[in-house]
Write a structure and sequence with these properties.
With about 130 residues, the protein is of the alpha+beta class. Helix content is about 15%, strand content about 35%. It has one helix spanning about 5-20; strands at about 40-50, 60-70, 75-85, 95-100, 105-110, 120-125. Strand 2 (about 60-70) and strand 3 form a beta hairpin. The two termini are about 20 Å apart.
Length: about 130
């Protein structure tokens, strides 16, 4: 990944973190099967916060972030796109995992000093 792409990715992750603070989580209808054979192409996607799992110390709190793909026929396909971790229980993301289509972590973003800015990014190597 070249430097300009890495900077753009860092900016995207920071914007994602900021946007997620402004988006209220919403309930899902749960477990519905969607027939995408007639769905054509997706028109856009939205991000949706899942339910936060508050763990006891020293474990961090975990919040899944779902990517909802909206198709031309009105169908919606959801997949887990990100995992967020809150290490100091302040309600802000301290570590963000970016997931591949098959659910593997491919990139991680860290805020070690809890100031809301990215301190470290880590691109994970593919394990095949």
């Amino acid at each position: 990944m070249n430097i300009s792409l890495r900077r753009n990715f860092k900016s995207h992750c920071l914007l994602l973190i900021i946007a997620l603070k402004l988006i209220p989580s919403c309930a899902t209808t749960g477990g519905e099967q969607v027939d995408l054979s007639k769905a054509n192409e997706p028109t856009h996607y939205t991000l949706r916060l899942g339910k936060t799992i508050a763990n006891t110390k020293p474990l961090p709190n975990y919040t899944p972030i779902w990517v909802d793909w909206h198709y031309q026929n009105g169908a919606v396909k959801s997949k887990l796109g990100y995992k967020s971790w809150d290490f100091n229980s302040d309600g802000r993301i301290d570590m963000l995992e970016v997931l591949s289509d098959d659910g593997r972590s491919v990139f991680e973003v860290y805020d070690f000093n809890f100031d809301g800015t990215i301190d470290l990014t880590s691109e994970l190597s593919s394990q095949e």
